[in-house]
Specification:
mainly beta, six-stranded antiparallel beta sheet, 2 helices
């Protein structure tokens, strides 16, 4: 696939059953463990909750993340009107 600047900012979720998740538009993985993955995306902070979660592939240059495991929740925290991320880690650590 040829390089396209617009593809870097597009955010997409593709859930296969509840065991595989593909996320595009990923800017940063803030933290992860077997029960929760927190990431900054072009659409805001995304929290993936579940059990036995692990990152199968991470390509921040391409903005792509693959998650395997039992996925229970997908939760977004929207960006604030000023364009800054309004995630819970920002509120927690200021």
């Amino acid at each position: 696939m040829p390089y396209d600047e617009t593809s870097m900012t597009q955010h997409r979720l593709e859930l296969d059953g509840r065991e595989r998740l593909l996320v595009t538009g990923v800017e940063e993985v803030e933290r992860f463990d077997e029960e929760e993955i927190v990431m900054a995306t072009t659409a805001g902070t995304l929290v993936v909750g579940g059990t036995g979660l692990h990152i199968g592939k991470l390509n921040l240059d391409g903005g792509e993340l693959h998650v395997d495991g039992s996925i229970h929740t997908l939760l977004y925290e929207d960006r604030s009107p000023g364009g800054q991320g309004g995630g819970f880690l920002r509120r927690l650590f200021g």
